[in-house]
Specification:
mainly alpha, three-stranded antiparallel beta sheet, 155 residues
């Protein structure tokens, strides 16, 4: 077993330089912070907005389908749903069928929040577009979808 004295700083520096996970995490945190700054006036964080948007776009949906759409595990999604439900932006409804399955729905208050957030989201999106340019931003979004699909396919 190697100890700390065996670590080669150059090897570690190269790992950090080429690590896809590190790069994605840094980019994700940076973009999240940017969007959070723009969304602050409406009281939503970007992490909440994506859950609210996902639920709205899917319509009445079960937890598994929403988690899949957002590339989240169900326990993380459940934690992220709690504040949105307590604020009255989302509601859970029992579904017909077996088990304890529930559907997630955006409430009228949640729809109002999406209306309030939309122009702030647009400002954040435009800020990112100004920093990257239209073509690069489009490519990044397309490439992120490709990466997500490739990793999730586990093939």
């Amino acid at each position: 077993m190697a100890n700390a004295a065996d670590l080669d700083p150059a090897v570690c520096a190269e790992m950090a330089r080429v690590c896809a996970c590190l790069g994605f995490r840094k980019a994700s945190r940076s973009v999240t912070q940017l969007y959070d700054q723009f969304l602050a006036p409406c009281g939503l964080r970007s992490t909440q907005l994506v859950v609210l948007l996902g639920a709205y776009v899917l319509g009445s949906s079960n937890l598994r389908r929403l988690a899949d759409e957002l590339a989240m595990d169900r326990s993380t999604l459940t934690r992220n749903l709690k504040p949105l439900i307590s604020q009255g932006l989302l509601q859970t409804m029992p579904t017909t069928g077996r088990g304890r399955s529930k559907s997630i729905e955006v409430t009228p208050l949640g729809q109002d929040m999406l209306r309030a957030a939309a122009p702030l989201w647009e400002q954040a999106q435009n800020s990112l577009r100004q920093r990257l340019g239209d073509e690069r931003l489009s490519r990044v979004v397309e490439d992120l979808a490709i990466v997500t699909d490739a990793v999730r396919s586990r093939g």
